[in-house]
Amino acid sequence: MSDTAHGVGGLPFDASKRVWPNELNVFGALVLIVVVFEVLGASLMGQSFLFDSQGRFDTIFNEQRLYIIVLQVSIVGIIAIGVTQVIIAGGIDLSSGSIVGATAMIAMSFAQVAEVNGQPNPKGVFIEQGWVDLPVVVPVMVGLACGLAAGLINGLLIAYTRIPPFIATLGMMVTARGIAKWWSKGQPISFPTQEYAAIGNGFGGWMPVVIFVGLAILFQLILKFTVYGKHTYAIGSNEEAARMSGIKVNRHKVLVYTIAGMLAALAALVLSSKNLTAQAGMGVMYELDAIAMAVIGGVSLSGGRGSIVGTVIGALIFGVIISGFTFLRLDAYYQEMVKGAVIVGAVVLDQWRQRYQALRT
Amino acid sequence: MSDIILETRNLTKHYGGVRALQGANFVLRRGEHVAVMGDNGAGKSTFVRQITGVERPTSGEIVFDGEPVQFAGPIEAREAGIETVFQTLALADDLDVPDNLFLGREMKLFNLGPFSILDYKGMREATLRGLQKTAVKIPNIRNTIRNMSGGQRQCVAIARTATFHSKLTIMDEPTAALGVQETAQVENIIRNFKEQGESLILVSHNMRQVFDLVDRIVVFRRGRIVANLNKPETDGQDVVAYITGAKTGAEYEDAA
User: Fold this and answer.
1) For residues B57 and B68, is the Cβ–Cβ distance under 8 A?
2) Domains within chain B, CATH numbers bracketed
3) What ranges do the domains of chain A cover?
4) How far is it, in rounded angstroms, from Cα B84 to Cα B72?
5) Do A241 and B89 touch (CB under 8 A)?
6) Between residues 55 and 114 of chain A, which touch chain B (CB distance below 8 Å)?
7) Contacts of B86 in chain A (CB under 8 A)
8) Distance between terminal CA atoms of chain A?
9) Which residues of chain B lie closer than 8 angstroms to A227, CB-CB?
């Protein structure tokens, strides 16, 4: 190639130099897993996994299965959106599952009805204070405030004491779980108002999915098109460069962890509303499921790479695997083993891909 | 407007008991290209760190563009018009060329605080203009830095200074990690800077490069300036003598 053809001042676009988006690989993996379940279903069960096999012509897909796949990942998916931006910024958040537990307990205690079947609410926390039958905005604001506080503390610790995110959020994980148990001395909190119950059950049960998809689109746009997103990628990519370029790194980290905390709190509202009860053990291991969704979706644990779209596909892979195992009537034990293998496999594949790209250029 | 873009008076930096820089008096005229040379630990990088605001000097004065300045950090120095290409490239590997050029000073379509909408098109066009100005060749500006060669990365770092109409560019060993061809490319950019009348301080160990590119050579030794040589009046051997301590400039006798 001659010197001038090489492009003085840079050619605007060169298709041969274009990098294959990782999200397509992840989507390919999703399709592959579905195909595997289809083949296994056809040969072992004599049924189709995703497609309608009842011979009805008004539907193509087995809608009930699709619904279950999407629904069971949407609540953890909300957390995974927050965790994704934390990981892109080069951090990690282990506290989200515990934030779910603590927020569910605290928010639910402000969402209770005064009377159940004519009797005073047997699980009422604030009956003496008269804090029952409150408008739905109260528990929602209380819940979001819990998430904001937890996330803010995470962010401040990480940005200003310079302790590793792993340790800071591990501390929050243990503390928040403690708060969840202490709040009602281990008792479950139940009987929410109609309005509160609608958060997780509205739209004929599709509400968690609607919230998840809405937030996913919002955060995909934020990460791609706003200064916030650009700085998140920059900090995860090269924190020192970000600092030297004048990005207020500490302030930005506080914001990232605060948003992650609030998304975990939102997941807690949806979950406790959907279950009509809150328990201290809610959300155990959700933080790891959320991290796994992000990692399967191609978000690099070393920061700087990944997207919400990838995480959503990662979440769907999660849902398909769980549903697929149920469909094949395999024990739940196998699900966990396979989930573990998928997480490790996703990271190994990503590493190989990175190395291949590095060699090619 | 004064002819002098940068002047330091008695610039001194101590790290605890270590006197890394002592009484540096340095003058740079507009459009002038000056090389800063010296052995490892002679005080070159310390000198650069003081004038770019990375560190605060222990004592002494910096006058930039006619005004005495005290930079609180590299960002302030950059806002005043001093662009630095650091030895450790301050680039984000996972972002593309316009993203890196505009890192920390993004163009915005709508200002919504931290959630301001980015003006991708404006940044791409400004990037192309900046690259044209420096004659930097990058096959695809939408490629991420991770997928670029060392030379291309260095060019991106240098193009950053050209995009923002800086008053003074400082390059700390811009070709130290580069191959022959890539070095030539970076040197071309520096010549281009000269033609456009940009002021430049070049920190380099490479004697041939220094004699190729600059008007004047300032030699540091053990934290002090020991020589100030106009290129036509000196040669490589002479400079080496100053660097190693075999010679000291007449006006600096008492210092060394």
Assistant:
1) no
2) 4-252 (3.40.50.300)
3) 77-283
4) 16
5) yes
6) none
7) 244
8) 16
9) 106, 108, 114-116, 118
Task: Note down pLDDT in tens along chain A; length 361 residues.
Answer: 333 333 344 444 444 455 677 888 889 999 999 999 989 988 888 788 887 666 555 666 777 888 888 988 999 999 999 999 999 999 999 999 999 999 999 999 999 998 888 888 887 888 888 888 899 999 999 999 999 999 999 999 999 998 999 999 999 999 999 999 999 898 999 999 999 999 999 888 899 999 999 999 999 999 999 999 999 999 999 998 898 888 999 999 999 999 999 999 999 999 999 999 999 999 999 999 999 999 999 999 889 999 999 999 999 998 998 888 888 888 878 888 888 888 888 888 878 877 776 665 5
This model of the complex carries an ipTM of 0.80
> Taking a C-beta distance cutoff of 8 angstroms, is the pair A9, B132 a contact?
yes
Residue with tokens 């996913």: A216
Amino acid making up residue A101 = G
Strand partners, B225: B220
Which residue intervals of chain A are DSSP H helices? 22-40, 63-88, 96-108, 137-160, 165-183, 194-201, 207-225, 227-237, 239-244, 249-275, 286-296, 308-327, 332-360
Helix extents (H) in B64-175: 74-80, 97-101, 120-134, 150-163
Return the number of other C-beta atoms located less than 10 Å from residue B68's C-beta. Answer: 10
Q: Which two tokens stand for residue A181?
A: 């148990």
Among A18, A19, A87, A226, the residue to mutate for chain B (most B Cβ within 10 A):
A226
- Contacts of range B129-132, beta carbons closer than 8 Å, 24 or more positions apart: B129/B163, B130/B101, B130/B159, B130/B160, B130/B162, B130/B163, B130/B164, B131/A9, B131/A10, B131/B97, B131/B159, B132/A8, B132/A9
Helix (H) or strand (E) holding B62: strand B59-64
Question: Would you call A209 helix, strand, or coil by DSSP?
Answer: helix
Of A265, A248, A232, which Cα lies nearest the Cα of A85?
A232
